[in-house]
Design brief:
It is built from 3 helices and 22 strands. By secondary structure, the chain is mainly beta. Strands 1, 2, 15, 16, 17, 18, 19, 20 and 22 form a 9-stranded mixed sheet that branches.
Length: about 270
C-alpha cells in the first residue's frame, strides 16, 4: 500500500455554501486561511446552514485578495462582497455559542435573500480575539475556532469513503450511492490508508504541520444533500446509523486541532505520530 498523503484540500469561505478546492492552504490556529470566515444568519441572528436551506449548496463564494468573496449561483448575476469595515458589532448565535460579528453590505443580504427566498444576513468574523473557544473537553485552554461547527479542521480518508459506499451498495437505497466526498465537507482528504484507520489516530502531521486528532465527526442531514442539485435522500445517514453509530452520533471523519502553523499542500506526506 502506498504511504498516506494529502489528496485534496477544501475551504468553505462562507459556512455551508459550496466548497472551494485549492492546491494549498495556510493553517492558522483556528482553521485554514479563508475557511468559514463568513456565515448566514436569519432575522433573529441565528445561523442558517444547509440543514435549513439545502439550496445553499448551489451558491458559490469565490475568495478574492483581501478576504472578500464573489457570490454566484445558477440564474443569478454574480456579486462582489468586500470585507466589511470593523464598526458596530452584531451579536449572533452559532449553535450554542454567541459571538460578535460584522454585517456585510446590504446588497449581499438582498442577493442571498432573493436566491433563498427568505430573509438572511451575511456576516463576517474578523479579529482573532473574537474567535470562539473550542469545547474544553477536547481543547487546551485558549484554543479557538472560527465559524466551523466546532473544530478548526475536518479530515476524511478515501479508503473510509470507499468502505462506506460498499455498505451503501448493499443496502435498501443502493441507488443513492456512491456518495461523493463533498457531502462530508472536509478540509483535508487523505489517500493511502486502510478503511477506518483514522479512528485510531491521535496525532499526525501533514507536511510540516502537526495536528491533534481530537474527536470523530458527528454527521447530520447535510450529508444527505446532493451538493450539485440540493436534492435530499436518506444516504449516507441510513448506512452510518447501521454501521457507524456511537451513542447518538453517526460518525465519519475526524476533527483536528493544529499544534503548529504552516502550509499544507496536495501531495504532502501524512505521517501518523500516535
Amino acid at each position: 500500500m502506498p504511504s498516506p498523503e494529502l489528496s485534496a484540500v477544501h475551504i468553505h469561505p462562507v459556512k455551508s455554501l459550496a466548497a472551494c478546492t485549492v492546491d494549498e492552504a495556510a493553517v492558522e490556529p483556528w482553521g485554514l486561511d479563508g475557511d468559514r470566515r463568513w456565515m448566514l444568519v436569519d432575522t433573529a441572528g441565528k445561523v442558517v446552514t444547509q440543514r435549513q436551506q439545502p439550496r445553499m449548496a448551489l451558491i458559490s463564494a469565490t475568495p478574492v485578495p483581501g478576504g472578500g468573496i464573489v457570490l454566484s449561483a445558477p440564474g443569478s448575476a454574480s456579486l462582489a462582497v468586500e470585507v466589511p469595515e470593523p464598526r458596530e458589532m452584531t451579536d449572533v448565535t452559532l449553535h450554542r455559542s454567541r459571538l460578535d460579528v460584522v454585517e456585510a453590505a446590504p446588497s449581499a443580504h438582498d442577493w442571498l435573500g432573493a436566491y433563498l427566498g427568505t430573509g438572511v444576513r451575511l456576516v463576517h468574523l474578523d479579529a482573532p480575539e473574537r474567535r470562539r473557544l473550542i469545547d474544553p473537553a477536547y481543547a487546551r485552554p485558549g484554543e479557538t475556532v472560527s465559524l466551523a461547527d466546532g473544530y478548526p479542521l475536518l479530515l476524511t480518508t478515501l479508503a473510509s469513503l470507499d468502505a462506506l459506499n460498499s455498505l451503501v451498495a448493499d443496502g435498501d437505497h443502493a441507488g443513492e450511492g456512491p456518495v461523493p466526498m463533498d457531502r462530508f465537507r472536509p478540509n483535508a482528504v487523505v489517500a493511502g490508508t486502510t478503511a477506518w484507520a483514522e479512528d485510531a489516530w491521535t496525532r499526525l502531521s501533514i507536511g510540516e504541520v502537526t495536528f491533534r486528532v481530537v474527536k470523530p465527526s458527528a454527521r447530520c442531514v447535510i450529508t444527505t444533500t446532493d451538493q450539485h442539485t440540493a436534492r435530499r435522500g436518506v444516504e449516507p445517514l441510513l448506512t452510518l446509523a447501521r454501521h457507524r453509530r456511537s451513542g447518538k452520533e453517526l460518525r465519519f471523519g475526524q476533527n483536528l486541532i493544529p499544534d503548529t502553523t504552516g502550509v499544507i499542500r496536495v501531495g504532502d506526506p501524512v505521517r501518523i505520530l500516535d
